[in-house]
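re the bet — no i am not wrong, look at it urself. input seq straight from the record:
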Amino acid sequence: MEKLSNQQLAAIRKRLLQLEKNLSQQMEINRDAASIVALDQTSVGRISRMEAIQQQSIALSTRRKTCLRLKRVQDALQALANNGYGFCEQCNELIAFERLLARPEANLCISCQNHADTKT
């Protein structure tokens, strides 16, 4: 596989920057949804409170996943700036451009990712 061209790297950089912006906005939106559920049961019934706690749990999970993906995007941007982007962290082979377009923060080639997925 050939090294990524400057045009390919520019396209991925643009995609990473847009993704970083979108994920940052999503973190802001999810911040309020993940806030602590009030204990005042006079204003909210027991069932409503349980639903609120469940919604909070979902929001916290979503926020954690978004935060993790944002970190990966920022790591990819850093690797791009240091000319270390696009190489599998496991086998050091070049990650396919198509995979990077689909998931620009990917740090494993598809083969190593499949292997990692079967381990878990």
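see?? The mean pLDDT is 88. told u. also The radius of gyration is 19 Å. so pay up
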